[in-house]
Write a structure and sequence with these properties.
By secondary structure, the protein is mostly beta strands.
């Protein structure tokens, strides 16, 4: 079974950058789609973007389009989320999870990581 864990969160200033990592500690990582989601305080879980095992990506959420980039390194069993031009509204807990196909539906994901906090100051 795939086990995922996020890292790379922290505090950034508006306009800055962070790179999140989602690492798999077990399982056949290379066969899964990995998605990034985020949840801001008091708000619903929001889909950000996903990447298939072959590197194809879904559409990005409109709120991050042009600023965030997803990538994966199957040799390292890791998916990355490069976040540039950060805004205070990007403040959230960011989660990664796996799915058997490319989907934007949270209900179709499993093996959720514990999340990593991203805080963007004005």
């Amino acid at each position: 079974q795939v086990q995922l864990a996020e890292s790379g969160g922290g505090l950034a200033q508006a306009g800055g950058s962070l790179r999140l990592s989602c690492a798999s500690s077990a399982g056949t990582f290379t066969t899964y789609t990995v998605g990034w989601f985020r949840q801001a305080p008091g708000k619903d879980l929001e889909f950000v973007v996903a990447i298939t095992w072959s590197g194809a990506t879904t559409d990005y959420a409109d709120s991050v389009k042009g600023r965030f980039t997803i990538s994966r390194d199957n040799a390292k069993s890791t998916v990355y989320l490069q976040m540039n031009s950060l805004k205070p509204e990007d403040t959230a807990v960011y989660y990664c999870a796996s799915a058997p196909w490319a989907t934007m539906k949270a209900a179709e994901y499993k093996n959720w990581g514990p999340g990593t906090q991203v805080t963007v100051s004005p």
